[in-house]
Every structure is written in C-alpha cells, then in structure tokens.
C-alpha cells in the first residue's frame, strides 16, 4: 500500500497537478505521517483494551478507498485525503502486526521476529515501487499503477479476517513472570516513560523519529532530485526500489544479529551509516552512484529498524508493552511529517542539496544521542544482564 506511492506520487504532483513548490508537493507525506503517528498510539491502547485482531481488521477496512481516491482524484486535495486514510490504515495494521509478533515470540528471538516482520513489509514496498515505476512508464502515472493497491487492500482484509488469530493471551501469560514496573501503569505514565524518562526507551524513540525523517526525505525528495537530473521514470523506480529492497532483505540478518550482539551497536551504527548514505546522494551523480548510495541507506536502515522495536520489547512490561510500542511508533512516524516539512521548507528556501545535507547531519546527531544515552537492553549470551532500572513516576 505504501510502495504504490514511492515512485509515482511525487512525479504525479508535478506532471498532473502542476505543483512547483517542494513543500506543497510533500503535503501528502506530512498528512500521512501525522495521521499514522497518532493512529499508532491509538492502536497500541486499543490493542491492550479490546484485543489485536479487531484493530487489525478495522485498519484494512479504512484502507479500502485509498487507491480509488488516488486514481480518480480531480485535485491534489483528494490525494492528501487518501493519504490521511492510508495513515490510519498503516497505523492500525502495522502496529498490530508488530505487537502480535512480540506477543508470540519469547525475548530471546524478539529481534529475529521483528526482522521477519519488517523484511516482509519493506520487501513489498520495494517490489511495488519497482512495479509501479515500470507500469507508469508504459501506461502513464494514472490509473494503472494504483490498480495494484486495489488488489493489496482486498488481500489484506481477507487474510486478516479469515486467518489471523488473537494473541493478547500470550502477552498475559508472559506478564506473570516478568520483572520490572508492573502492568498497572496508566497510559499517561507509559507515554512519559517511553518518551522521556526511561533512557533506553527515550533514546529509541528519538532514533525512530529521525530514521523516518530521512525516510520521508527519500520518499518525497529523492524522486524529484533524480528527475531534475534527467532520469527516466523507469530508472527512478529502480532507485526508489533499491533502498527499501536492501532495507527489507537486510532485516532478515540484522534482526537476529541483534539477539546475538545486542541492540545498541546496531542502532548507533545504523544511524551513522544512514548519515553517510544521505550525504552521498547529495555529493555523487549518476545512476550507478545513486544506486550505491540508496543501497547503503537501506543497509543502515535495516540495522536500525527491527532493532528499535526489539529494544522496546526488551524494556517494556508485557502489561503495557502494546502501549509502549504505540508511543514509540507515534514518535517514529511523526518523523515522516517532520522530514517532509523540513526538507520541503529548506529545499524551497535554498535548494534540494542543502535539504539533503541538513537531514544527513540530523541523522548523525541522532546516532550520537544513542551512544550517550542508551544502555544495552539485550546483553550477549553468557553475560550478566543489567540490573533493573528503577523508574520514578512521581518526579
């Protein structure tokens, strides 16, 4: 559902709707990011209260109109409205699948499970970005590429309704033997802990925000950057697919690797790799060089993405883990909106190259925050785990 937009939508804004300001073009990402961030938080809370499966199915129902709205949109406002619904769809469905996998696996393989989950998602993003680029080059930017979305939403709703089982009881079972702050925390307390007070949770939240900030840059600005250099739509599709393809496949390795070597090295290292890759996009020129930079960006993101989720699962008590995942994903997906706004404003005031450099420097700074603030949440086998961190809810 997200992949159908990666190649086509930024080009559609210019070619069919005549948007020339970069900030106006990226409004669809701002709308998507803000709504998805808020919906992530709601999804975590609802999953604790009513169960995981009802939230999952509701998300797919909301997603039904998305490809149709884009196909038939008479104005750019319709596209933005479609992305509001896409944000709700993604917030409900993806948050819930993450929570369900954390429910189903034990702590020793949590990173591996997150790697599989994110690899499935971003592998599909890559394949769809590649497919829509090829379709658009042959049959135009609309409506043909978005027919894939009609099939995707039907499959998502059908599979979720017919095959998925409720997993909340697994979390309840795990909670009985879990140390640390109990499951009776209020939602406000979970928000404060995850966002600010608990060092590992807050460090992962800011890293998630910056990670999706640069993903918003890659989604909205890179196609325009490549098109300005004279790249064909088909080649832009290949570049747009390379980054999530490496990201998706890489998580099959990095998720399990974090179970063996720990979370912190992969998170900090991944943020630094992303910073180098983003800077490279601004410095190099040509299809091969940009493809290499996109692959490096995918590798850095693969190091970070499943590992952040696994770290949340390490620290959060099963009784409030779904809400902690929701809060983390609220911060993480707010990065889409922050990245689109920042990149659009800087690109309009200066140029696209300055916007890319700005995001590269922010990404490197985020890696430094992880180095300084985060402790290791999943020690390597054979090492004594860290003592439980006292949590002061009154100060």
Radius of gyration (Å): 20 Å
Q: How many distinct folded domains?
A: 1
CATH fourth-tier homologous superfamily: MFS general substrate transporter like domains
User: Spans of 5+ residues with little confidence (pLDDT < 50)?
Assistant: 383-388
- Shape, please? globular
Cα-to-Cα separation, first versus last residue: 43 Å
Structure classification = mainly alpha
The major beta sheet can be summarized as: none
Order of helices and strands: HHHHHHHHHHHHHHHHHH
| CATH T-level topology | Growth Hormone, Chain: A
Mean pLDDT: 88
How many distinct beta strands? Answer: 0
CATH architectural arrangement: Up-down Bundle
* Helical stretch tally: 18
What percent strand? under 5%
The CATH C-level name is: Mainly Alpha
Main features:
395 residues; mainly alpha; Growth Hormone, Chain: A; 18 helices; 79% helix; transmembrane; cell membrane; MFS; transmembrane helix; membrane
Explain this structure to me?
By secondary structure, the protein is mainly alpha-helical. Helix content is 79%, strand content 0%. The chain contains 18 helices and no strands. The longest helix is centred in the first third of the chain and has 30 residues.
The gist of it:
This protein is mostly helical and 395 residues long. The chain is built from 18 helices and no strands.
Present the secondary structure layout:
Blueprint: H1 3-6, H2 8-15, H3 22-25, H4 27-50, H5 52-63, H6 66-72, H7 76-104, H8 110-139, H9 147-162, H10 168-175, H11 187-197, H12 199-220, H13 222-228, H14 233-261, H15 264-283, H16 287-315, H17 321-349, H18 352-373
